[in-house]
Amino acid sequence: MAEPSLTYGSAHPPADPEGFVPTFSMFSASPRRPSIVTLFSLLCWCACLGALFVGMLGLSTYVAPDYWVTDNMSFFLTQFLAAGLFGCVVGALGLLVRHRFALLYRTLWSLAFIAFVSLAGLTGSRTLAHTADLTPATDSGRKIKVVSINIEHLFLGDEVLRAFLEKEQPEIVVIEEALWWLQERRWERFGLPIGGNGSNGFPEYLKVGELGGLAVYSRFPILASQDHLVSGTLPPGSDVYYDADRELLSLTLDTGDRPLHLLAIHPDSPRTHSRWVNKRAYMDELDKVLTGFDQTRDRGIIAIGDWNSSPWSARFQRTLNENGLVTAYTGGWPQNSRFFFDYRLRWFLGSPVDQFAVSRDIQVENVSLGPDIGSDHVPLIVEIGLPASEQVQTSD
Questions:
Q1: Disulfide: which of 82, 121, 345, 362 matches 358 by Cβ 3.0-4.6 Å?
Q2: CA–CA dist 249, 263 (Å, integer)
Q3: Are 327 and 130 in contact (CB under 8 A)?
Q4: Per DSSP, what are the bridge partners of residue 142?
């Protein structure tokens, strides 16, 4: 019998004399994986890469805090942690699947996991660094509820805002982005008393900043006030509503026993490099004002407002550390007080920018966020206890 020969260029190999025909699958290294497994493997690779990426973004705010981009990463650490956790979990499931570059995959997942754990540890540590425990006020002390609202140019006579204040009945209300000159025009047009103080939940004493951006209502008489102006650089193309110059209101209030020193805060939003520089200059001025107070324990200071700063920002933490201040958060963790696009998406599309800080002689009873009032911020509600003078002297 003649030997079978292989003809070059033939599309089909010759048949074996015993009927055996070789196929391509016989020469492949391994059987082909199902498409679903291949897609899941791709998903796991993307999850690991994404977790590593957001982890590095978050860590940059701790490694290089004095740069515009990296400092602003601190606004989104909650989102980075959530995305990093998701990526690490999906990546861990991917360890159960065979990958073409198995060693590289395990290395990538390990790096992503290390970045996530590092970011979580640093963020948790900074959250606790200057955080006071919530404690009930003493019976002899003065209980004070302070509400801070960035109204985003909302009319102060708005029904929703008035209903909120009537329900809360705060002793002090701090308003940011008031645009006071436009508020006056609206009150005049409606034939209403300008300011609305003493009615509809607004306390009776009123102080408006020189630039009209800040306003403070108080049930306590105002013993002294000072308006600190911080000049800023106006970026090209700015509209007439934007003012690069900012004000810092410093008030001394008569609570009936000890005076309360209130600082109303609203630096520039660091959305561009020039505005970030403006904000840093404002924080420097704030430090100077705080340094001017008596450095004894009996200081009675509360600084509150839209700080346009993340609680994890190194610059914010530096102000707390250098001036002996503490803060606290709703539920022990910073919550988003400023949201983008829609109030219902605030948990994901938002940032915790409304802050307060108190001297250590003030007790923090409770911290909470209010409802949607029509602004792109929700109200910050802080309940504090101002110990009586004799209590502070005894503790000294």
A1: 362
A2: 6
A3: yes
A4: 386
